[in-house]
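Changelog entry

Holo records now carry the ligand SMILES as an explicit input line rather than a separate metadata file. Below, a converted record for zinc ion, shown in the new format.
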Amino acid sequence: MKSGLIVSKIRNGTVIDHIPAGRALAVLKVLGIKGIEGYRIALVMNAESSKMGKKDILKIEDREIEEKEAELITLIAPDATINIIKDYEVVGKRKQEIPQEVVGLLRCTNPSCITNNDVEAVTRFRTIKRKPLQLACEYCETRLTEDEVVRQILG
Ligand SMILES: [Zn+2]
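Structure line, unchanged by the conversion:
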């Protein structure tokens, strides 16, 4: 291990590695983790990575990331590795699959879209491109880029 920030291994939980630098907070947001839930969380930002230059790492104790959550993480961290840890060992990996559909999480940027005018309407985007990410609103076809998705999640 390189010198600098040493983060100890976790006994049970999830380790998310290879998050693009600066996006660890967006990952926590996608998971709905605010810090008040009581999970012990280690967050390393801008760590050196031979593969990526710089990266973020997130370790969340006693919280197992579900497949559906892993899909949402893929939206903002397409090359992240998500390992489930039990008794200090990796017992599972979550596949990195961009969801075909994103329901409720994002906002349509078109002010006249029904989802911005009917309080009961739930936003619904389908994936039309993976790299770089592009989503389309099911109601008005407005496109969302990866930057917009990250901006909204952090916003
Ligand atoms: Zn729309």
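Spot-checked after migration. The chain has a mean pLDDT of 91. Helices lie at 24-30, 67-76, 146-154.
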